Amino acid sequence: MGRKVTLATCSLNQWALDFEGNLTRILKSIEIAKQRGAKYRLGPELEICGYGCADHFYESDTLLHCFQVLKSLLESPLTQDIICDVGMPVMHHNVRYNCRVIFLNKKILLIRPKMLLANYGNNREFRWFSPWSRPRYVEEYFLPRMIQDLTGQTTVPFGDGVLSTKDTCLGSEICAELWNPRSPHVDMGLDGIEIFTNSSASYHELRKADHRVNLIKSATTKSGGIYLFANQKGCDGDRLYYDGCAMIAINGDIVARGAQFSLEDVEVVTATLDLEDVRSYRGERLTKHHKPYTRIKTDFSLSDCDDRCLPTHQPVEWIFHTPEEEISLGPACWLWDYLRRSGQAGFLLPLSGGVDSSSTACIVYSMCVQICQAVKDGNSQVLEDVQRVVNDSSYRPEDPRELCGHLFTTCYMASENSSEDTCNRAKDLAAQIGCIYLMEITVKRWPQFRAKGGSARENLALQNVQARIRMILAYLFAQLCLWAQGKPGGLLVLGSANVDESLTGYFTKYDCSSADINPIGGVSKMDLKCFLQYCVKSFQLTALIGILDAPPTAELEPLTDGKVVQTDEADMGMTYSELSVIGRLRKISKCGPYSMFCKLIHSWKETFSPSQVATKVKHFFRMYSINRHKMTTVTPSYHAENYSPDDNRFDLRPFLYNTQWAWQFRCIDNEVSKNRNG
């Protein structure tokens, strides 16, 4: 009869700028959708690059790599004979849009830009994108050459159009458009569009899921229709946790749904539905609509001719988590994503025996419960991740308490003011959840500096403890100096980390760079040296001459023959002058790794070979991405430099990166090979 359609939506645990991993997860979702008989697959918002790219959206690299991934998707056999709807940024007439790219059998059918942007709460979409402001208008978009060569298309439709198959019509909404009082699905429904799709990056907040579900039910209660909702899930690089809830509704009823909290990286939700149910529902409710959408016609059917015996999905009841369950599940999933992607081996928590630290401990235990359940359910990715974290390829977690002993260490930091009651409460909780519990740390050997035969980890730990003691003592003196003199008040602690050290993370988190305010945090090292030369001349501060002649050093490693051997530039692997150039390219010129390399092979050609430039660019981005988390706690600084990495307002970026930069560095390696062979 040709009226029953099988549709797929999904929740994907995408990661900002992890193009390699994002592509793998997209292809996996398409494969599952096809296995379940779906002819249409919807993915989350900006799924190719990840929603949380923040100021990386400014970079031409982000657009380039998105099209490279799109090319891989178009070429893949998995994307044949199914309409694929993916999300990525697209620049059209030099304006950047948040778009859906809909394609079928190596042909792009439509690029639909977002019309109503999210600019509230944690969303800052107006910072990076412009809204498409021409309802029901479609124009031509000129494809990049790499896509033209593959598809044979020079231009494709771009705008607020809908897709018309041989048996039905689909229209797109993107995330916040569902929450807006002028949601596009209203007009689309009145114009006969039967299937609405919504690709989202909707993050978790307590008591939010029911609002989302009610909006989707309402969208199809008013005028009928089928509604597909896709969402990102997991931590994609910052403070937010995207909580899935992929679902499919028809005529006001939810008929298929995914989990709100899950350790599955790829979750696909499918449903088989009868288009005649939509048409019957609308028959007594709708009147003719006089402002039609541009219909992009495609010679493809979502239904089969012989579908008489195909069962359709029936309404399901959505049982929402209580706030207590949400606290147990959401932060636990976020912690697991952060742990497995950070490359660390577990968590440490000072456990005081009070409500707050006990709550954090319970969330870690909840994480262990979910990991064990996921492994029991056959989740091979979770098993692989936990084996890597514990550094044991044969390990298989079965008991949450036992796993907690591998991943979680707590310590009771007693002082002479601590009571035995709090100590016992902390000890009892640690015993019940199975974590390691330390009353004191005993080691069989004492850590050594590298100069005395110690490892890199020992060397770094000993440097960091010195740096952090400086911060503690600085605040102690600031609070007590005037008291010791019999004067009222306290002192503001000033920081003294420059913009280049912040850019590379060449400082210890919570060391003496942590202060109340920092007057030089927005100034480069090169400019500071020029400033000191100015001070020598203007203020006759001749002591600065020796300071300027000395090599910059943190002085955290032992002296050799009474001489300083540790220098900042040696530790960083580049000079402050080079770093200043790189910093300006990153922020001002909006360069990612690949485009930065392409610029530097010309500007540094007299000094470095292409392979040496590649090494320096890769080294910088590894350092930058490993240490970016430090910028979330950096001291408020005077703003002076236009390449400042200040995370508070000026330079918004993720703080959890895939530090391998696999896709980006491969593009650099390809260019190095071309230069070598050329």
UniProtKB/TrEMBL annotation:
Domain of life of the source: Eukaryota
Molecular functions per Gene Ontology: ATP binding; glutaminase activity; NAD+ synthase (glutamine-hydrolyzing) activity
Gene3D superfamilies: Carbon-nitrogen hydrolase, HUPs
Catalysed reaction, written as an equation: deamido-NAD(+) + L-glutamine + ATP + H2O = L-glutamate + AMP + diphosphate + NAD(+) + H(+)
Signal sequence range: none
The keyword Nucleotide-binding belongs to this UniProt entry's keyword annotation: yes
Pathway: Cofactor biosynthesis; NAD(+) biosynthesis; NAD(+) from deamido-NAD(+) (L-Gln route): step 1/1
Keyword annotations of the record: ATP-binding, Ligase, NAD, Nucleotide-binding
Quaternary context: Homohexamer.
Entry's family note: In the C-terminal section; belongs to the NAD synthetase family.
This protein's name: Glutamine-dependent NAD(+) synthetase
Organism listed in the record: Cyprinus carpio
